[in-house]
Amino acid sequence: MAKPHDHTDTKSAEGRAPKDEGLEYPGAVPVAADELDVISGKDLDRQRAKSRREGGSDAAGADSENPLKGGFGAIRQVRAAAKRRAEAHDKVRSLKAELDESQKVLDHRTKIEADYEKIVAAQNEALLVQGQTSARAQAVIDQQSAEKADLEGRLAQMKAEHEEQLRPYRELMESTKGRADDAAKTLADAKRQAKAADQQLGEATKRREQSMASANRSVDNSQERLRKAEGELDALKADSNASPAVVQKKQSDIVAERAHLDAARADLERVTSECKQLVDGAQANLAAQRRALESAETAADVAKREADEHREEYERLYNAALASEKELSDEIAKRDRAIASAGKEKQDADARQAEAQKLLDEATEIHATPEVSAELAHTIAQGRQELEERMKSAQKLAHEEKHLREATRKQRFLFIGAIVLALVLVALVATFVMRTL
What we know:
The chain is mainly alpha-helical and 437 residues long. It has 2 domains: 33-114 and 369-436, no CATH class; 125-362, Orthogonal Bundle (Helix Hairpins), CATH 1.10.287. The protein is 88% helix and 0% strand. The protein has 6 helices and no strands. The protein is elongated and about 180 Å long. The model is unreliable at 1-45 and 51-64 (pLDDT under 50).
């Protein structure tokens, strides 16, 4: 709230330096008329006489001196007059704004003083009500905070108990899961070994078939050659012209071929025996691997079933413990919401209480200082008078500016025309010079 300064000394307008500004700060009001920049009637007369002397001397000088110099001086005079007029109008606007602001302050003080008793009663009632509301909210906060602390302690203890109760079940679940993982790895190895044994049996069977086919072909070839040689020998014996040496040679070939046939038959028996042993060994290995696979599958199934049972048991107990903890967590969350709500209620009540105290203090201060309102009204009245004087001064300066513009119009137009003519001549000369180059 803007308040006037307590000035007890009053100075005359002639005994102090004139001010360029209006009031000391926005919203303030002058405390006395002689504190303002008052333009008296004598000041106006002196200003008019000075303007006439300057206007007359300048006009005469403009007629007698160089027209350019006189026109330039006239323009400067008009600009100076316009500046004085603008400054005067600015001061009028500034003072008017300050007086309006001061009037608002006075109106506010007047209204407060008129409603003082009602304001005091209403704000005291508000202080009482809001104080009680704040106290109730604080009591709720204290109660809910205590309950929250108790619940948090119970929750921490419950979590510790649940951890202790669940530890054996978790360890059992983890151990059975480890055994199930090991059994699964063993089963995977057994499957790979059974597959390898099956492949070995296939390779042994294929090798037996190939070896026996090759041995049988050797026996068949030897038998075919032997039959052919015996047929040829019979033909030689039937031929009376056959040479004994040829017959003897063929007989020798037959003996050799019989030896080859015996060797081929012996090789067939050996290959048959070896291939049988190889296939029998592969079959035995496959049977053993299949038995191992069945055992691994059974062990893996048992381990997995056991691991699943212990995992389900642990999860059931864990979920039950989690549900119990959630009940306490929900109760804690309820206390948090109640504390937040009561805190907001207390904050609002405290704010309303502070506002009521502020209004009460303001009303008390205004009621206790009626002289401030009276002084403010007095200074506003003085300011109104000063505003009227400033408005008259501004109007006078505007009139003088208009008169000066009319009196110097000829000189200013001649000056401007001369400048334009000079620019045209310079342009013509420049054009001529450019064309001659």
